[in-house]
Write a structure and sequence with these properties.
- The chain has 159 residues and is an alpha+beta fold.
- It contains three helices and ten strands.
- Strand 8 and strand 9 form a beta hairpin.
């Protein structure tokens, strides 16, 4: 089983700019392409820089959430301010979170690694907790020796 920890987190709010994912939820290639296209777009048009400018720290949140039966994907930051471009203020509940750590050469690789490990290995094999929905996030936390590092945070309940 992949390494993970259970951590108690206080509630927190992420200011997000997002996109609805149109691919079927089982079409991983389609979903990943939509996510990559979204990130490329917000990097090129300066939207990601606007988010970073109002951030409380250097963390970039890659949030997935079901909203009104739609699969939503957001770029977000911790912030007390809002922006006209912001599409959602995402509330994460106080409680236990499965936390998976990882490192990769690019932000895209890090997000795929964290998401794949968390949902493909940790959650299916975890016998003491369950993910019951709500937002989850891959958190890009920084860079060490040219390698990006971060964590996946998934709210869970005890079984």
């Amino acid at each position: 089983m992949a390494n993970y920890t259970l951590e108690e987190k206080e509630s927190f709010t992420v200011l997000g700019i997002g996109v609805e994912l149109k691919s079927d939820y089982t079409d991983y290639a389609g979903i990943n392409k939509e996510k990559s296209d979204f990130w490329e777009s917000i990097k090129q048009d300066g939207t990601l820089d606007k988010l970073k400018a109002v951030a409380a720290n250097e963390y970039i949140f890659v949030v997935n959430e079901a909203v009104n039966n739609k699969m939503m994907h957001y770029a977000g930051v911790l912030s007390d301010v809002t922006l006209p471009e912001a599409t959602r203020v995402i509330q994460f509940p106080k409680g236990e979170y499965v936390v998976v750590k990882g490192e990769a050469n690019t932000a895209d690789e890090l997000n795929h690694l964290l998401t794949g490990t968390a949902f493909g290995q940790v959650l299916p094999e975890a016998t003491n907790v369950a993910y019951v929905g709500g937002p989850n996030t891959a958190v890009q936390m920084g860079e060490r020796d040219g390698v990006l590092f971060g964590e996946m945070w998934i709210p869970v309940v005890r079984k």
